[in-house]
Each structure stands twice: as structure tokens, then as C-alpha cells.
Amino acid sequence: MPVAGILRDLRRVVPGGACRWLFPIVALFVGLGWPVTPLHAEPPPATVYNPKPAAGDLVLPMPEGAEMVFRRARVPGSGFWGDPERVIQLGDASGGIFEGLQRTQISGSFPAADGEGWEIVLAKYELTKGQYLAVMGLDALLETSGDPEDRNLAGLRGRALRDALMQPLTFVSHQDIEVFIRRYNHWLFDPEHPERLESLPTVDGVPGFLRLPTEEEWEFVARGGLPALEAGTFDDRLPFPARELNEHAWHLGNARHQLRPVGLRAANRLGFHDLHGNAQEMTAGLFRPEIWQGKPGGVAVRGGSVSTPAADMRTALRAELDAYAWDPDRQRVQERRSFNTGARLAIGANVVVSSSQRAEIEREYEDYRADIRRTMPVGRTLDNLVAQASVQLGTVEPILARLMDQNADLREPLTAVQEYMDRARERLELAQRESARSLAQDAARNGVNLSVYLSRLERLERTLDSARQLLEISSRYQEQVAAVESSMRDLETAVGEQLQGYRDRVARLGDYEIVYIEQALETLRAAEPPPRERAVLELLGQHLEEYAEQRRAEPERWREAFRERFAGFEG
């Protein structure tokens, strides 16, 4: 589109003389060689709206040739209702008081292209000032923004103007964001421009709509989604090594309260930028102490910001934005505008979009209810299914007592039912004790094997050092070096297998109530095991205690604990 045509369009959006400051924006885009109309090639070209283009980007048009870029994040499982693979753990037991661990079923809004699963669709970057201006115009920004720097936008040129337009939109209220989303949706759905909907994902042919993401969607994507689940890193405090924090996030240590243009830091493994740091991001839900439960408050914001200390940066970090804040000095309520709080949009869809789609959901629900639902968080009261059965038996007791009081003639048969239930509970208790003991015994066996293999590795490392020194003197020791290296590779494989078994059993045992874990360990200690096994039981107890608190396995750290404990071990 010619520059003159763009300016004519801008005059319809930005009244009067406000348009004169927009000319340098258009000139800047052209001067940089960046198109002012959205393109949909894979990957698309770099623009101020997509500074780090990548394959898989989903580009939506905006007014004035602007664009907004989204990416898809596939959730595990298949079908609408999913399966146990869709249960994820949120929160961080080592974090703040509002980050308690909990399990939930993650779901996507749109079917995947292969028809086998579902996807979340989330904006690749934080919402920027340039995108807000494209939809709302300059006057709206100056009216809503609490940022004094926005008064200087009209006088900026070149790189300064570009950087200002690529800044996250902050200093606006939650209500202002909702107005923006409503206006943008109306523009997209203009019946005179069906081409604007071409890139919107659909459900049963019905296009989605723009909204804020839920906390669950946000955290799932920020943790790295399905690839992180498959790699076993989903529950980690950060989705990247802590030493790489500066590469991925603007925080207090490297930004000093100063926001930066979007996309300058490295993307996460799903291709999203600035989920950690820069501006903390509003979500769709009200802030509750336990994410889904407790007193509803203000707006939940996620991700930390340029004011968050590096030591506090974590994926589970949550905060409350008091959307309606009390000003004690003026004795009045005001809409909160925060210099470091912005937003990131998502594309959502209604649960039911058509009668045919509802019928399919209903058909699938029958199988889900009969089999899978009882294993999902909504169908469980405790993590361990045997413990759940015991709890469910307990809920029957007051019902029986009430029936006995109301029906004297039924007291004898109901008493018999009560006795059957008591015996069933005793058998369940025994089953839990025996199962916990068996798991602890298997974990200890893995631990003993792990300790032996690590000790052998330690000895082989010393042998290898000696062999390499001899090899420097004479080549006839080459065969010895190769033999030792081969043995070490075999041992590393064995170590990995035992560590994985140890990790899996600790995680399974961690689902039991603490009383059964303690009984299991005490039973094993009472058998007076040899010194190596006693040392393994000490480590196992520590690791079970850590898992119960953190709900996170840390196999590499556990391996190091075994290595240190059994270095030079005799016995």
C-alpha cells in the first residue's frame, strides 16, 4: 500500500493534526525496508511487530498495516477431554505463599492441524504501544496512559521512535486493555472485510477471538509446554538454566526498572519472547491465593518485570494488580496504572461453537466419564488412588449413621454394612502400607546399585588418568585407554538406568501420605541392613522429604548427592 494511502487511512483513525506525527513512523518502516502490510510467509519478514520471525509464526492483521504475531503451543493428549497426560503441575513450593503446588488439566482452545490434539494460541510478544496506537489512535493513548514519556512521542524520530513503538504497553489500566481487545475484535470481525479472518484459527469452522490468557495457559507456555514435559524439565524453577537468565529476561539486575523493546531477549523453547521479565503481564482471571481457589481479588499478573530481582525470577511467580486501587491520600478509588504492568493477548474460542461439535463432545464424554475422569484432578481427592478409596469409604459413615437414626428397623443390616466397610478400610490400609514398603525397597535397591556404579566410575576415572599419562610415554597403552573408556560408557548407561528407576519410585512414593512413607522406611531400617544400604536409606529419606515439599524430582542433584556420599566408601 502506498504511503499516501496509509496516511489517508490514518486520518480516519487519528483526528485532526495528530496525524502529522505518524508520518515519520511510516517513513521509518519504509526506510528500514520493513513492509507496512502484514505478510504470511513462513517465516515472515522482520518488522517492528515481529523483530524475531520464526517458522510457525501466526500473523494477524491490524489497522494501519500493523500486525500481531501469535504462536501455537500444543497440549498433551488427544481428543476434547484429553487423558491423564494432560494433567500438569503448577506452582512452586519454594516460591511465595501464593504459588502452592497444585495439579490441573491443561486444555487447548483449537484443534491441532493433524486433528489429533489441541493447541493454545498465545501472542509471541507483549502488547506494544505501536499495536495499541494502530487500533486506538494517539488521542486514546494520551488519554489513558499514565506514562509521561508518551507526551513526547510526536517529537521522536528514527531509532528512538522505533524503540518507543516497540516498548510494551504499560501504564494503562486493566479496563483500558479490555477496551483495546474489544475494539480490535470488532475490527477483525468487520463483515465488509472477511479477509481479516483468514489467519484466525477455527473450531468447527468458527473463528476464534482475542482475549487475555488464563493463568494456566500462561504458565504452561512459559514452562516450555509439551517439549518440556517430554524432557522432564516442566517442573523446573525456570525453563532454562539459571545462568542463562540474562539471555532470556529483563529483570532488576540487568534492566534497573527500565522497560525494553520487545523481542530483544532470547525466545523460550516454544518461540515466545519476554514471558519472563520486562513487563509483568495481566491474565484473564481474578487473583486467587491458590490460582483457582480462595478469595477473589484483583487481576492476576505473571512473569515478573524489570523490577523483579534476579533471585526472585521463576515461572510460578504471581502477583495481584489491584485493578481498582484505594488512594489513601485522596480518599478515593482509582483505576490502577502500573509502569511495569502490561499484557499479552491470546486467541480463544467458546467451548461449544455448534450443535454438531457439542454432539461430538457429548459422545466422547461417555468414555471419559467411565474411565479417565476418575484419574483427573476433578475426579480425585488425593493423589494416591488407594488413599482416595479410603477417603470415599469415610464419607459413607455419616450417611449410615443418619439412616440408622431415621430407620430403627434398618439398624441391624446397616450395622453389618458398617462392619464390612471397616474391614475394607483395614485391607486398604494394609495395601497402602505394603505398597509403600515395596516402592521404598525398590527405590533403595536402585540407590544401592547407583552407589556401586558411581564408586566404580570414580575408580575408573583414576585408572583412565593413569592410562592417559602412560599413553603420553608409549602408544602401546592406547588399547588400555580404549578399554577403560568403553567400560566407563557402559557404566554411565547403567547409572542412568538406575537413576531413572530411583527417580520414578521416589515420585510414586511421594504420592503416599507421610505416615506410610515413614512406616516403609522404618521397616527397612529395622531389618538391620548393611552399611551401604543404611547410607542409601538416609539419602532416600532426604529425597522423599524434599519431593514431598517441592513436588519436583531433581535427579541430577540426587546423583551428585550419591556421588559425594559414597566417594571412597568402604563397605
UniProtKB/TrEMBL annotation:
Residues 414-494 form a coiled coil. Gene3D superfamilies: paralog of FGE (formylglycine-generating enzyme). Keywords: Coiled coil. InterPro entries: CTDL_fold, Sulfatase_Mod_Factor_Kinase, SUMF_dom, SUMF_sf. The keyword Coiled coil applies. PANTHER family: FORMYLGLYCINE-GENERATING ENZYME (PTHR23150:SF19), SULFATASE MODIFYING FACTOR 1, 2 (PTHR23150). This is Sulfatase-modifying factor enzyme-like domain-containing protein. It comes from Thioalkalivibrio paradoxus ARh 1.
